[in-house]
TrEMBL record, chain A:
Homology family: Belongs to the ABC transporter superfamily.
CDD domains noted in UniProt: ABC_HisP_GlnQ (cd03262)
Subcellular location(s) per record: Cell inner membrane
Chief localization: membrane
Membrane topology: Peripheral membrane protein
InterPro entries: AAA+_ATPase, ABC_ATPase_HisP-typ, ABC_transporter-like_ATP-bd, ABC_transporter-like_CS, MetN_ABC_transporter-like, P-loop_NTPase
Occurrences of domain ABC transporter (ranges): 2-236
Protein name: Amino acid ABC transporter ATP-binding protein (PAAT family)
Keywords: Amino-acid transport, ATP-binding, Cell membrane, Membrane, Nucleotide-binding, Transport
GO MF entries: ABC-type amino acid transporter activity; ATP binding; ATP hydrolysis activity
GO CC entries: plasma membrane
From TrEMBL, chain B:
Primary subcellular site in the record, as a coarse category: membrane
Domain named ABC transmembrane type-1: residues: 22-210
Species lineage: Bacteria, Pseudomonadati, Pseudomonadota, Gammaproteobacteria, Oceanospirillales
Keywords for the protein's UniProt record, in alphabetical order: Amino-acid transport, Cell membrane, Membrane, Transmembrane, Transmembrane helix, Transport
Record's protein name: Amino acid ABC transporter membrane protein 1 (PAAT family)
A cellular-component GO term for this protein: ATP-binding cassette (ABC) transporter complex
InterPro entries: AA_ABC_transptr_permease_3TM, ArtM/GltK/GlnP/TcyL/YhdX-like, MetI-like, MetI-like_sf
């Protein structure tokens, strides 16, 4: 499980996260909503160690992410991450994009890695694009490629940082469907998202962030129908 | 009036020597580029990622290589070091000088290439558990090589032509050889005209080869 205790993050004078406490259990789908600049994405970056933190702790299965003696590369294999911009590796085919990390990070044989990659690509519906270069794929396909690439490392957790925000509107559905599929398979997921219907239908819990503070967390029903905080109600009214 | 009569026969007779010297030119340019690419890559990385003496070493190298005449650089490795009792062979002097110069120019090409790679490419690689060495060698550098490929080709052409400076330190590459025959026979125009054609052919071959290599290397 992921345990976050009293997490503070500063960018210079800017206090981006102001004491976050959060537990995410195995098998849970947590959606994080909130306006831009509320610290949602920064939280994900602190969870996988892409950003340093100034105070508090983040533990993944009991391992302190930000401790000096933690092997962060090893730890990150447990944490799949999908970004807003899909960041395909343009010089590799989709198959190579997915097979690379299992081969060089996990030390799988080439055949094993390629087989695994093909399986993951079929899983996200790209089975007919194995030999394509990313440049010939649409945004939605590239985002699904990014998901397959993360899954090929067989992570225990998946972090989604506004995975659909940069997509053309008609491509959003295919990526959300893939995320839904993962959730149904029991993947533990933290999804920073602006897709309220996804947050509502797929998540076990929804957290609302406001100016670096987690103002509200609970089952979707509760957050969407019966928000306790004034800010949450205002935000939900505006996005509807 | 114009009373110079052309005599091409001596040129034709010494053509094998000239072509041989042309191969020496190609060899020098290729070796200098090979060293230049490796050193230039290191200089660019040092300039971008290091602090203190290593960074200033790289910056100084690049500044001198780019902002002073290549001929002076060659003279430094020849007569300059010679004055301190370090006597290098003409081959070593031209190779060192050319490599020094190319590395400086290529370092800046590489720096531009690195800056064109979005930092999110590295973040994505790191998120897959790659360490920074793996992220650089597997993700960043292949893309950088693609970006700097044509500037490198350009530099290679430049290296072929610049190796003619070898003539001035007594090295018998194509220009040195041409000079040798020209002063022996006094057919200066004819020899240098022939050498110009050989240079042209060498550059054409280099460009053709690089285009073929690009077709093989870059599939996207």
């Amino acid at each position: 499980m992921i345990q976050i205790r009293d997490l503070h993050k500063h960018f210079g004078d800017l206090h981006v996260l102001k004491g976050i406490n959060l537990d995410v259990n195995k098998g849970e789908v947590l959606s994080i909503i909130g306006s831009s600049g509320s610290g949602k994405s920064t939280l994900l970056y602190c969870i996988n160690g892409l950003e340093t933190i100034q105070q508090g702790t983040v533990h993944i299965n009991g391992t302190d992410v930000h401790a000096k003696n933690t092997d962060i590369n090893k730890l990150r294999q447990k944490l799949g991450m999908v970004f807003q911009q899909w960041n395909s590796f343009p010089h590799l085919t989709t198959l190579e994009n997915v097979a690379l990390a299992p081969r060089i990070v996990k030390g799988k044989s080439k055949e094993e890695a390629l087989e695994l990659a093909a399986k993951q690509l079929k899983h996200v519906g790209l089975g007919d694009k194995l030999k394509n270069y990313p440049v010939s794929l649409s945004g939605g396909q590239q985002q699904r490629l990014a998901i397959a690439r993360a899954l090929a490392m067989e992570p225990e957790y998946m972090l989604f940082d506004e995975a659909t925000s940069a997509l053309d509107p008609e491509k959003v559905g295919e990526v959300l469907d893939t995320m839904r599929l993962l959730a149904e398979e029991g993947m533990t997921m933290i999804c920073v998202t602006h897709e309220m219907s996804f947050a509502r239908e797929v998540s076990d819990r929804v957290a609302y962030f406001h100016e670096g503070i987690m103002e509200e967390i609970g089952p979707p029903q509760q957050v969407f129908e019966d928000a306790q905080s004034e800010h949450t109600r205002k935000f939900l009214m505006n996005v509807r | 009036m114009f009373d110079y009569s052309f005599h091409w026969r001596p040129v034709v007779k010494s053509l094998p020597e000239l072509i041989q010297a042309g191969l020496v030119t190609l060899e020098i340019a290729s070796l200098a580029m090979l060293l230049g690419v490796v050193i230039g890559l290191c200089l660019a990385l040092m300039r971008m990622n290091m602090k203190g003496p290593l960074k200033w070493f790289a910056v100084t190298w690049i500044e001198i290589a780019r902002n002073t005449p290549a001929l002076f650089q060659l003279f430094f490795f020849g007569f300059g070091l010679g004055a301190f009792g370090i006597n290098l062979s003409p081959f070593t002097i031209i190779l060192t000088g050319l490599s020094f110069n190319c590395a400086g120019y290529l370092a800046e090409n590489f720096r531009g290439g690195f800056q064109a790679i979005p930092v999110m490419q590295i973040n994505s690689a790191r998120c897959l558990g790659m360490n920074s060495w793996q992220a650089y060698t597997r993700i960043v550098i292949p893309q950088v090589l693609r970006i700097v490929y044509y500037p490198i080709t350009n530099q290679m052409v430049w290296a072929v032509l610049m190796s003619s400076l070898g003539m001035l330190i007594g090295f018998r590459e194509l220009s040195g050889e041409t000079q040798f025959f020209a002063s022996k026979t006094f057919r200066v125009f004819e020899y240098f005209a022939a050498a110009a054609v050989i240079y042209y052919v060498i550059v054409k071959i280099v460009l053709g080869a690089s285009r073929l290599l690009a077709m093989r290397l870059f599939r996207y």
